[in-house]
Design a protein that fits this description.
Number of strands: 4
Distance between the termini: 17 Å
CATH class: Alpha Beta
Number of domains: 1
Shape: globular
Strand order of the largest sheet: 2-3-1-4
Strand content: 25-35%
């Protein structure tokens, strides 16, 4: 699924997230994966970003607006493990297609 929007979401882990076990994080990411599929959002990659202060990054691709993506993220329970996040929205250049 190729979305017309790409959202690069940088997340800072909360104290509760730092205390969470690997199994708890796997459970969180599995729930987020399930909800992404349900909501028509592709999780292109999750990883550790370099050159920024945040702890991890998730790249989402979807045809949905940021408000729809935010609702999906909140449903996944991100606020439990993430203290703050910032999202960069990337849209294709009109003349590049």
């Amino acid at each position: 699924m190729a979305g017309k929007y790409t959202y690069i979401c940088y997340c800072s882990v909360s104290p509760e997230g730092n205390a969470a076990s690997a199994d708890e994080w796997k459970e969180f990411f599995a729930k987020e994966d399930e909800l992404a599929e349900k909501h028509g959002v592709e999780i292109a990659i999750r990883g550790t970003p370099f050159g920024v202060s945040e702890s991890y990054v998730t790249v989402y691709k979807t045809d949905k607006y940021i408000d729809d993506l935010t609702a999906m993220i909140q449903e996944a329970g991100r606020s439990k493990y993430v203290s703050s996040a910032r999202t960069v929205t990337v849209t294709p250049l009109i003349f590049s297609q």
